[in-house]
C-alpha cells in the first residue's frame, strides 16, 4: 500500500465560536490525483489554508510528507507547490521574468525555468508580457510557478475556474501529465465535478467540516450500482418480459420498445443476458443508467447515500 502524502487526524478549526472543521480525517495516497469535494461552506478552503500553513493547527494533527506540520512547516512547504484559484502575476512583466523572480525566492536552479515552461507548454510565449496572456495561459503559468521548486505535492484549488472549454481541457491534460509522467501527487479541489470524474482516482467528500466519504472513485461507483436499472432491447420484448418475470427478476413498468429491470451487480447483468440468448432471443442493446459523480455527490451530501458509499 502506498504511503500517505497528506494525513489529518481529528482536525478541528473554528472561527470564533463557529466550528468550520470537525474532526476532519483525510488520507491522500502518494502518487494519486485526489479530488477534494464539498458544497459551499463545507470547509474546503479552510482545510487548504491549513495544509499550506496559512492558518494554524489548533486541534488535531496534520502530516504532510510524513512530517508534522506544526514542527516541520518550512521543510514541508519547500516540498509542496500550490495554485489557489488565480495566480498572482506581475502583468507588466513577461512569463519568463515572473518565473525568474519566483525562482530566486525558492532558490531553484536557473535551468528550471526552461523546464517548467516546456512542461506547461509556454516556451513559445515566455517573453510575452503576461497582460497579453489568455486566462488559460495564466493558469498554466501559475502551475509553472508552483513547479519551480520541483515539489512532490501540488495543491490546486479551482484551477479551471473561469476557463472556457478549451482552457479547461488544457489544464486537465496538464494535471494528468504531471501525475503520469512526472509522478506528482495532485490534491485537487474543484466545483466542476465532471473534471474530477475525468482526473481523480481517489477522492474525499466533506460537508459541515466532516468527512462523509473517502476512497476510490471506483468504489464509490460500485457502491451505487445496486440501484441501477438495466434497459434492454431484444428481438421480442414481450417474450423477454415474460421470461424475466418467470425467473423473478424485478421488472419496472414496461416502456415502448424497452424492457427495464433492476439489477444488483455486473454478474447479474451477465446472467440475465445469457438467459435471454439461451431462450432464443437476440439482445440488441443492454444499458444501465449508472449514476455519475454529480448524482453521487448530491446523494451523499443530502444524506441519501447507501451505507456502502459512505465510510
TrEMBL record:
The UniProt record lists the keyword Transport: yes
MF terms in GO: ATP binding; ATP hydrolysis activity
Transmembrane parts of this sequence: none
Organism domain of life: Bacteria
Keyword annotations from UniProtKB, A to Z: ATP-binding, Nucleotide-binding, Transport
InterPro entries tied to this protein: AAA+_ATPase, ABC_transporter-like_ATP-bd, ABC_transporter-like_CS, P-loop_NTPase
Span of the signal peptide: none
Domain ABC transporter: 6-233
Keyword ATP-binding tagged: yes
SMART domains given in the database record: AAA
UniProt family annotation: Belongs to the ABC transporter superfamily.
Name used for this protein in its record: Bacitracin ABC transporter ATP-binding protein
